[in-house]
Design a protein that fits this description.
Blueprint lengths: L2 H21 L11 E11 L4 E3 L18 E8 L8 E7 L4 E3 L8 E2 L4 H4 L4 E3 L8 E9 L4 E12 L6 E4 L4 E6 L4 E3 L6 H4 L8 E8 L9 E7 L4 E3 L3 H4 L2 E3 L3 H4 L4 E3 L8 E9 L4 E12 L5 H4 L5 H7 L3 H15 L4 H35 L4 H21 L9 H38 L2
Parallel strand pairs: 1-19, 9-11
Antiparallel strand pairs: 2-17, 3-4, 3-8, 4-5, 6-7, 7-12, 8-9, 10-11, 13-14, 13-18, 14-15, 16-17, 18-19
Helix pairs in contact: 1-9, 9-10, 9-11
The structure holds 2-acetamido-2-deoxy-beta-D-glucopyranose (NAG) (2 copies).
The site of one 2-acetamido-2-deoxy-beta-D-glucopyranose has 6 residues, from loops.
Length: 445
């Protein structure tokens, strides 16, 4: 029974390692805070100049040289009974200047002076007149953030005090005001972009990321960082770093398109353009699944004469495998580890189950042998042999199931254990290829 302590030790070791590995298994698939606004498949030939388009006018850097004149509210009126185009009634900059356009409205139309501090842009009409009826719009412009919001209210004037009130017509508020009474057209927007002064000059950042094939988004490689201040940083694998670029005037035009020139087969992967304007609350991601095809002019010279059928299937082979070979190196070692360990954990757990079954059989056999020695040799060895054989078959699916001597059996089991243990240690490299393929299937759907 000196085997038992050793086996128990093995069990413990295996149990522990598989527990640790399993617990580290499900990797946190945390997603970035930005929303995906577009996702597209793009294909370019190797050697070409690839351009991944990423543009947003809201990312144009409008430096606020005037300091805090970048927000404005204005109230307009249209749809009056007298007809005529929309007319501006009153406007106000975030700096606090209020302008009333018609002389007759001065002192009659009021905006709260603290509108941009409190987010209350409501218009007060001191004493409603018949001509005030119409469609009013409260318009908020944020020049710095390229934001525009508008709210419509219809004002109706009545002589009947009991008809006064407000209701919703399905699209907008309808306010019925009594002639001569004050009317408050409510327009409240407390979102911080309308109420805060912005202090930092540039909170605009653009990133380009790249995921080699099969790598999830949270493990993407950063390729480029661009700041509105003009600062730039390039990362990414050396083989790619020198071939990617974004135009120097990107922030002036809001065009952050990535050029890859010249394109190589190994550049395949998923590219993401992240636009962040922290102050304006802009967080957008554009995703490109880049495929690289054979370069156009190459195929003709590669066809060897005569060998038509097989050459077709073998000719395109070198490039994809080259690309895959590179990407496997990029993928597995630094990034696929958690997933790989998870799989390894399953393998080990299965192994453990096998070993436990094996031990149970060994112990059961030994016990029975010891207990049944009185009447052993002559009578029961046939039936016992059968027993053992059945068990062995079940567990080992054995080609070597017909051992009868106990010594040989023990040796044999030792060997199996050793083999299993050896397998557990040697399997990872062989296994990793399959796992990688599995993953790729999963992520490249
Ligand atoms: C907005 O300001 C007006 C005064 O101009 C006031 O009567 C009204 O209650 C305010 N609304 C809110 C929601 O603060
Ligand atoms: C390809 O080879 C086969 C015989 O190997 C021949 O019958 C066939 O005509 C060939 N096709 C072309 C396009 O050369």
């Amino acid at each position: 029974m000196e085997l038992q302590p050793r086996v128990l030790l093995w069990e413990l070791v295996l149990l522990q390692s598989s527990a640790v590995l399993l617990s580290s298994g499900p990797s946190g698939s945390s997603t970035a805070g930005s929303s995906v606004v577009s996702e597209s498949e793009v294909t370019w030939a190797a050697g070409a100049r690839a351009v991944l388009r990423c543009q947003s006018p809201r990312m144009v850097w409008t430096q606020d040289r005037l300091h805090d004149r970048q927000r404005v509210v204005h109230w307009d009126i249209s749809g009056r009974r007298s007809g005529g185009p929309a007319r501006r009634l009153v406007d106000m900059y975030s700096a606090g200047e209020q302008r009333v356009y018609e002389p007759r409205d001065r002192g009659r139309l009021l905006l709260p002076p603290s509108a941009f501090q409190e987010g209350n842009f409501s218009l007060l009409i001191r004493a409603v007149e018949e001509t005030d009826a119409g469609l009013y719009t409260c318009n908020l412009h944020h020049h710095y953030c390229h934001l525009y919001e508008s709210l419509a209210i219809r004002l109706e004037v009545t002589d009947n005090p009991r008809a006064a009130g407000a209701h919703w017509d399905g699209e907008k508020e309808v306010l019925v005001a009594e002639r001569g009474a004050p009317a408050l057209l409510t327009c409240v927007n407390r979102a911080h972009v309308w109420t805060d002064r912005h202090l930092e000059e540039a909170q605009q950042v653009v990133h380009w990321d790249r995921q080699p094939p099969g790598v999830p988004h949270d493990r993407a490689d950063r390729l480029l960082d661009l700041y509105a201040s003009g600062e730039r940083r390039a990362y990414g694998p050396p083989f790619l770093r020198d071939r990617v670029a974004v135009e120097a005037d990107a922030f002036a035009r809001g065009d952050f398109s990535l050029r890859i020139d010249p394109l190589e087969p190994a550049d395949e992967g998923t590219y993401s353009c992240h636009l962040h304007h922290h102050y304006c609350g802009l967080h957008e991601r554009r995703v490109f699944h880049l495929k690289v095809t054979e370069p156009a002019p190459e195929p003709p010279p590669r066809d060897p004469p005569g060998n038509n059928g097989s050459s077709h299937s073998s000719a395109p082979a070198p490039d994809p495998t080259l690309a895959r070979g590179r990407s496997v190196i990029n993928v597995i070692v630094p990034e696929g580890r958690a997933h790989f360990f998870q799989q390894l954990g399953y393998v080990l757990a299965t192994l453990l189950l096998f070993i436990l079954l094996l031990i149970t059989v060994v112990l059961a056999t030994r016990q029975r042998r010891r207990g049944g020695y009185e009447y052993s040799d002559k009578k029961s060895w046939k039936s016992k042999g059968k027993d053992v054989n059945v068990a062995e078959f079940a567990v080992v699916a054995g080609d070597q199931a017909f051992y009868r001597s106990e010594d040989i059996q023990l040796d044999y089991k030792n060997n199996i254990l050793k083999e299993r243990a050896g397998l557990a240690h040697s399997s990872p490299p062989a296994k990793s290829v399959d796992l990688d393929k599995d993953f790729r299937k999963e992520y490249c759907k």
